[in-house]
Amino acid sequence: SAVISQKPSRDICQRGTSLTIQCQVDSQVTMMFWYRQQPGQSLTLIATANQGSEATYESGFVIDKFPISRPNLTFSTLTVSNMSPEDSSIYLCSGGDRTLHNEQFFGPGTRLTVL
Amino acid sequence: LAKTTQPISMDSYEGQEVNITCSHNNIATNDYITWYQQFPSQGPRFIIQGYKTKVTNEVASLFIPADRKSSTLSLPRVSLSDTAVYYCLVDLPGGSYIPTFGRGTSLIVHP
């Protein structure tokens, strides 16, 4: 298994600013993902964080708004840029390994409120 | 894309067995079925994974019929602490894994 930590755990930000969320895994994982989850809703995949290359974004999410870095197999960041109140949500990262049939381990999430 | 369908909510009582069924009619030959549990204000947690027939661990059992078009998560003797949202996921084919969470099933366990 892998233990995922995220920083910050929560933040309140002003509209127009940017926030970078960090995700740290305690062991190397082949896959890392970023999700968004509105209260009471399911998880929506934002992107797959690819080590050493550009992230793969899902429909409705673009790099300019959600730039992602993954410099190695244990760390990734997600930036929420030029925030608006609609970006208020919980952001989750996960790590997984193909040798475990894509089982994912999730971080505790970052609760973001944009005023 | 193997879409999954689950009941939106279920209610049970402490000590009962709970069975949550997930439909995945267009599951691919190499797909695995994975179930996650999510408590409020936490990230999802892996419960169990299977490919066919039956899988059991210390937490739950997973039943998968021969046609693999559905799967049933069985929680024996639930307690209040099993109140959570349960999601089933099916791997996507083609070697490029794109995890897709459905709406999940909100299980409420009553005293």
List the helices and strands and how they pair.
The complex is a heterodimer of chains A (115) and B (111).
Chain A lengths: L3 E4 L2 E4 L5 E7 L5 E7 L5 E7 L6 E2 L10 E5 L2 E6 L8 E9 L5 E4 L3 E5 L1
Parallel strand pairs in A: 2-11
Antiparallel strand pairs in A: 1-3, 3-8, 4-5, 4-9, 5-6, 7-8, 9-10, 9-11
Chain B lengths: L8 E5 L4 E6 L9 E6 L6 E6 L2 E4 L4 E4 L5 E6 L8 E7 L14 E6 L1
Parallel strand pairs in B: 1-9
Antiparallel strand pairs in B: 2-7, 3-4, 3-8, 5-6, 6-7, 8-9
Q: How would you sum up this structure, described in words?
A:
With 115 residues, chain A is mainly beta. Chain A is 0% helix and 52% strand. Chain A has a single domain, classed as Sandwich (Immunoglobulin-like). Chain A is built from no helices and 11 strands. Chain B is mainly beta. Chain B has one domain: Immunoglobulin-like (Sandwich). In chain B, 0% of the residues lie in helices and 45% in strands. Chain B contains no helices and 9 strands. The interface between A and B is medium-sized, with 23 and 20 residues.
- Mean pLDDT across the residues of chain A is 93
- Provide the β-strand percentage band of chain A: over 45%
Order of helices and strands of chain B: EEEEEEEEE
Order of helices and strands of chain A: EEEEEEEEEEE
Mind summarizing the main beta sheet of chain B?
Answer: 5 strands, mixed
First and last CA, distance of chain A: 37 Å
Question: How would the global form of chain A be characterised?
Answer: globular
By helix and strand content of chain A, what is the structural category? Answer: mainly beta
CATH class of chain B: Mainly Beta
Q: Shape of chain B, please?
A: globular
CATH class of chain A: Mainly Beta
Strand content of chain B: over 45%
Name the CATH superfamily assignment of chain B: Immunoglobulins
